[in-house]
Amino acid sequence: MEVEEVFARFRDIKHSIKAKRKATSIHYGEHKSAFKGSGYDIVGVDEWRQGQPLKDIAWTLSLRTYPRRLFRIERMEPKELRTLLVVDLSHSTLFQLSHESNKALLLLELIGNIGLTRANIRDPVGLLGFSDRVEMYMRPRLGSPQVFYMAKQIFDKLQLEREFPSRRHADFSVAIDFMLARLKTGHSVVVLSDMVDFVNDPDAIAFKRLRTLAAKHDMMFLILDDPGEFEVKSRLGYIRISDMETGKQTVISARKAGAIRRQIEEAHADIQYRLKHQCGIDSVVLTPENHADELAKFLISRMSR
């Protein structure tokens, strides 16, 4: 697949999204802000008067005049909901078993669907790509060109991985620590990963730190899956399988491929249970075949609560 084909898919997605009405603001979205409180952007400083909220008092400015005069900070709550797509760019996600259907293309499709939908309602969209390090970071910005640029960067990474495999694994602590340090205001955080590292090691995610992050941001996990990775034409004989993160190869009986596939499905169910009950994070497993319908059902179920 070429980058022109990826952009063609994105343009199809963009044209299929219909705006309810023309935008009346060049900066803010029409939907109600998901964040409560007096806001984040400082408009100015004024003298505090009796009856106004105490939390607005600028104590550092009021030290010299206390208690005769107190000063308050005027704040404005932005109505935009910043969206950050947190993308697993480890070798297992970028690995392509088929040029027509694989997790890498599924990843690009989801970025197009979610990113362009958010951009259409005037919400800034950004990207955090990680493996065992931060691969790329783009601060949330307005407009669909930002989404196309994100896709181009990931496509270039995909091409490079195909020519020069790095076999980097996904270290979720890298992404979690980065977001805890950098995201000062509430974001809508969408994590896209195949969770291969968690399947191999259930302790690969620090759920305590993830719970701290989820308490401040609206988070969801989209788990990428490709059942075709374990499809075999015959149950007779032996096949050679390779760990996509480490490259370690093993020879197994062909009839055991189905059992391995069931173990992965059970691991995904365990991941979803722990995310929900330990961190309060919703998740869904998406495949190249069912992602359109399953993602729609998942998002509708979250909105209905």
Question: What do these coordinates show?
Answer:
With 305 residues, the chain is α/β, with parallel strands linked by helices. It folds into two domains: 36 residues, no CATH class; 224 residues, 3-Layer(aba) Sandwich (Rossmann fold). The strands form three sheets. A six-stranded mixed sheet has the order 5-4-3-6-7-10, sandwiched between helices. Strands 1-2 form a two-stranded antiparallel ribbon. Strands 8-9 form a two-stranded antiparallel ribbon. Strand 4 and strand 5 form a beta hairpin. The longest helix has 23 residues. The protein is elongated and about 90 Å long. About 7% of the residues have low confidence.
Question: Any idea what the CATH architecture of the largest domain is?
Answer: 3-Layer(aba) Sandwich
Q: Helices and strands, in N-to-C order?
A: HEHEEHHEEHHEHHEEEHEH
Strand content: 15-25%
How many domains is the backbone divided into?
2
Broad CATH class of the largest domain: Alpha Beta
CATH topology of the largest domain: Rossmann fold
Q: What is the makeup of the main sheet? A: 6 strands, mixed
Rg over CA atoms: 23 Å
Range of helix content: 40-55%
